[in-house]
Amino acid sequence: MVTDSSPSTSVLSSSVWAPPSAWGGCRLRHLVVVALPSTTTGSGIPVHGHMVTSACRLVLWFPYVGLSPLHGSSSPFVGVVWCHHVVDDGRDAAAQGGRGGRALSTKLGFKLGFVGESNQISEMWIFGRKGPSGFSACSTAEEVTQGIDGTGLTAIVTGASSGIGTETTRVLALRGVHVVMAVRNRDTSGKVKEAILKENPNAKLDVMELDLGSMASVRKFASEYKSSGLPLNLLINNAGVMAPPFMLTQDNLELQFGTNHIGHFLLTNLLLETMKSTARESQKEGRIVNVSSEGHRYAYREGVRFDKINDESSFSPMSAYGQSKLANILHANELAKRFKEEGVEITANSLHPGAIPTTKLLRHHSIIDGLANMVAKYFMKDCPQGAATTCYVALHPQVKGVSGEYFSDSNLAKPSALAKDEELAKKLWDFSVTLTDSK
Ligand SMILES: NC(=O)c1ccc[n+]([C@@H]2O[C@H](COP(=O)([O-])OP(=O)(O)OC[C@H]3O[C@@H](n4cnc5c(N)ncnc54)[C@H](OP(=O)(O)O)[C@@H]3O)[C@@H](O)[C@H]2O)c1
């Protein structure tokens, strides 16, 4: 973890820390996390803290060492946590020389997190506890949709040819949803379709070609979809590219902004009338789900660099990825606002699927990809867990009527302050309209 380099020790807010309830059922009254400042050049920082419940009945100590590859105000960190869980129930006080306390458990865990604006920490236990929805980071897409009947619904899943998109497609189809796999690679997706049909011969699947990096392709897809006469209840904007070197789309936009945001922005706009008429005729709520990322916290300082979208000299692969993922959240928020104003029965939400090292997302970083596949897969999410939040937001009745929210681990979550900036969302909308109208 990295703080600013001021010499003072930072005391970080308790509200953003989710204590691991699996390690104790007591309600925590407050939490103090003390972050020792890093040096101006260093990148590692030890953090320790303790949580105290009402009447000091429970104490959790978690010496923590976080390592961050970056030094800045919005940096990722990953670390090992040792958690010593003590209940002071008075009964053992004498036996322990009057100090009280009895160790309940000692556990080693892994944490992944981000230091965001104002030194607030957003972080997650890689193997987490259940949230208010009843699901956790460990829940799979099948688990969060157990017992839900999606028969009669039609969905488009972009990027269905691999990773989270494939698993989302499989599980939605398992629940009876007719899924249109919107993909740029027909060969791979043909194999994916075959594999799903082999497991579930009743799956209703279609494959349609879509290259989000080409507005002409997006328009062709939307036009063919409308001509097919299919309804559209669920639009899952899942496809994405992460941290490639500086490249441009076919429409001369930086690849990540152009693919992850602009492609999906245009696709959504072109399909809105179909979604609206489906919602009206079927009397079923339509849902738009934007697969974003906690990486939205890496975005450039100003969030979206409207005047420097294609500026190669100041390009940073991770900040550009963050910018595009921030745009996914702002896009969903602005859609939600517009739907509410229009009284349309469609919701729009965004989400972080978790860290899933076994997808092809790291394809531009072969060394990290190799390491992730060798090591990280043992303590991070797999694809069934990675597709859970998408399937939860798309299908679960708990999410009915919920719009303009950000989810993680199949629960409501807090995005960065920039992601909640309504003016920025409006500015991005207008900017995106200008970019897409001209092509
Ligand atoms: N994996 C993670 O840890 C993680 C974490 C946070 C967020 N996410 C988000 O989750 C989403 C899915 O990623 P993933 O992890 O499943 O990665 P993935 O396995 O690489 O899947 C990405 C999908 O997007 C498709 N795609 C890329 N560019 C496209 C384009 N121009 N037109 C159409 N489709 C395109 C890919 O198609 P091809 O197979 O043809 O390339 C692929 O099917 C992404 O939006 C990503 O940002 C992932």
Automatic annotation (TrEMBL):
<dbReference type="InterPro" id="IPR055280">
    <property type="entry name" value="TIC32"/>
</dbReference>
<dbReference type="InterPro" id="IPR002347">
    <property type="entry name" value="SDR_fam"/>
</dbReference>
<protein>
    <recommendedName>
        <fullName>Short-chain dehydrogenase TIC 32, chloroplastic</fullName>
    </recommendedName>
</protein>
<dbReference type="InterPro" id="IPR036291">
    <property type="entry name" value="NAD(P)-bd_dom_sf"/>
</dbReference>
<dbReference type="Pfam" id="PF00106">
    <property type="entry name" value="adh_short"/>
</dbReference>
